[in-house]
Amino acid sequence: MLNKEKLPYDLREKISDMFFTRIDTGESGAKVFKVSSDTASYYLKIETAAGELEEEYQKTRWLQGKLEVPDILYFGEENKNKYMLLTEINGRILCDKEHIRNPEAAIKLLAEGLVKLGGVDTDSCPFDNRLEKKLEKAAENVRLNRVNMTDWEETTKFSNPESLLNYLYKNRPPENEVIFTHGDYCLPNIIAELDEITGFIDLGRAGIADIWQDIALCMRSMHRNFGTRKYEELLLEYLGRKQDKEKLEYYILLDEMF
Ligand SMILES: Nc1ncnc2c1ncn2[C@@H]1O[C@H](COP(=O)(O)OP(=O)(O)OP(=O)(O)O)[C@@H](O)[C@H]1O
Ligand SMILES: [Mg+2]
Predict the structure, then answer these.
(1) How far apart are CA 222 and CA 232, in angstroms?
(2) Which ligand is nearest to the CA of 221?
(3) Is 75 in the pocket of ligand 1 (CB under 6 A)?
(4) Which residues pair with 206 in a beta bridge?
(5) What is the per-residue pLDDT for 24?
(6) Pfam families, per this entry (predicted)?
(7) 54 lines ligand 1 (CB under 6 A)
């Protein structure tokens, strides 16, 4: 359990009388807690090893007023741990059963989310996630032994991260639809009421990239959460575009490096 006494003083002051619940999300590099009282609810992310929390902080800060994202109540580092406290976004994550039992409505929301992200003006955006940069980061993850093959998709037929990296360098698809992307556009990172997106969270990988960065991970997440690929066409219909199997497969493979 969390020892509140060990939290940085300025953070502790904001949440000392509140109740903590650990959110178990699985793949996370950070520990996430819901922190609540009778009058307020926040989310606290704590990172104890090298990770993306500082980038998430910078991107969430840059997006204030540009996109529906949480407010940042605290970010700080103490004794090599990083801490970020966020306001709660109202609504339910898209993998919540309320949304899952309304697949058509959920797919529409996912499409609307992609449109909102694409509406963020990239002119002054300092976060470049185009393939040149993204592959540099992938290569660094390989070099530092940070690629976890145990969570690879069953369909990923590479025997080691080096051979996948080599494939990714040699088979780069054209980046002809570069926009602002979430970077980890999966159902647990999008929050919505039944008919409206209320917020985007977990923004550590956000930045400028080809739109298929988000469409591909969205389709992978739809498959995981609905147990079928049959809604892909509906998503594409809402987006007014065609399937691109090459990019779909490429961006899912690329994500194995992160
Ligand atoms: N500001 C917020 N408002 C509402 N719910 C939140 C908020 N932040 C986090 N959550 C809830 O906590 C879950 C996990 O948070 P988040 O997605 O930020 O972390 P993660 O996926 O565990 O971490 P990582 O940063 O390592 O990818 C979310 O899926 C959501 O249910
Ligand atoms: Mg998440």
Answers:
(1) 8
(2) 2
(3) no
(4) none
(5) 83
(6) APH
(7) no
Is residue 32 within 6 Å of ligand 1 at its C-beta?
Answer: yes
Query: pLDDT tier at 135 (50, 70, 90 boundaries)?
Result: very high
Q: Which domains does the chain have, with CATH numbers?
A: 4-87 (3.30.200.20), 92-255 (3.90.1200.10)
Distance separating alpha carbons of residues 105 and 99, to the nearest angstrom: 7
> Sign of the CA dihedral 182, 186, 190, 192?
positive
State residue 23's pLDDT score: 94
Measured CA distances, 221 to 121, 158, 255 (Å): 26, 21, 12
DSSP-based three-state secondary structure for 91: coil
d(CA 117, CA 214): 10
What are the structure tokens assigned to 10, written together? 């300025």
| pLDDT tens for each residue of 182-236 | 999 999 999 999 999 999 999 999 999 999 999 999 999 999 999 999 999 999 9
Q: 41 pLDDT exceeds 90? A: yes
Sequence ranges of the binding site for Mg(2+): 189, 202
Question: pLDDT, tens digit, for every residue of 13-22?
Answer: 999 999 999 9
- Residues lining ion ligand 2 (Cβ < 5 A) are 188-189, 202
Q: What is the mean pLDDT of the chain?
A: 96
Give yes or no for residue 127 having a pLDDT over 90: yes
* Closest-approaching ligand to the CA atom of 41: 1
The residues assigned a catalytic role are 184
Tell me, in angstroms, the distance from the centre of ligand 2 to residue 246's CA.
26
C-beta 91 within 6 A of ligand 1: no
- Determine the atom of ligand 1 nearest the C-alpha atom of 51: 26
